Amino acid sequence: MTRIMFVCHGNICRSPMAEFIMKKLAADAGLSDEIYIASSATSTEELGNPVYPPARSELTKHDIGCSGKTAVQLRKSDYGKYDLFIGMDTANIRNMSRIFGSDNDGKIYKLLTFAGRGDDVSDPWYSRDFSKAYSDIEEGCTALLTHLKENVL
Predict the structure, then answer these.
(1) CA 149 to CA 13: how far, in whole Å?
(2) What's the CA gap between 99 and 61, in Å, rounded?
(3) What is the distance between the alpha carbons of residues 126 and 22, in angstroms, rounded to a whole number?
(4) How sure is the predictor about 125, in pLDDT bands with cuts at 50, 70 and 90?
(5) Would you give the end-to-end CA distance of the chain in angstroms?
(6) What are phi and psi of 73, to 5 degrees?
(7) Which of 3, 11, 52, 78 could lock 41 by a disulfide, CB 3.0 to 4.6 Å apart?
(8) Catalytic residues
(9) Phi and psi based region of residue 128 (left: phi greater than 0; alpha: psi -120 to 50; beta: remaining)
């Protein structure tokens, strides 16, 4: 089983959106039993809070639910428990490296690199554009799933 942790700053917008988009893509591809998917935060600001209502609404527009999800923090001990850590932006990558101390096994990636883009996933916390964030995340997750099917699964 491939274990994936999506990571953003607070774990209330982008990373839970990625978690539930990827879970739907994996289910639609018949791969739910082969991929374990979770999400977490690099900060402590939102711990225990549910998915931010506009992010939840954007997922609902695409028939994706996220009930029960609350923000949790990424821990150094997670490094040995997951195969991939997928950050939404450059700051997430930097913070994951700080939390883990190193990435000796090459597990840390920025989501849109799987889609051939080096840019960051649009941050709806600042832009208020949850549709753009959804689009970026869906593109990245679709490309990630293709990568997994071709190289891992």
Answers:
(1) 26
(2) 34
(3) 23
(4) confident
(5) 8
(6) -100, 140
(7) 11
(8) 8, 14, 123
(9) left
